[in-house]
Amino acid sequence: MPSYTFRCSEGCHFDALFSMADVPTTTECRACGGLAKRVITAPHLSAAGNAAFQLLDHSARSAHEPAVVDRLPSRGSARPQRVTQNPLHAKLPRA
Ligand SMILES: [Zn+2]
Question: How many A from CA of 7 to the centre of ligand 1?
Answer without folding.
Answer: 7
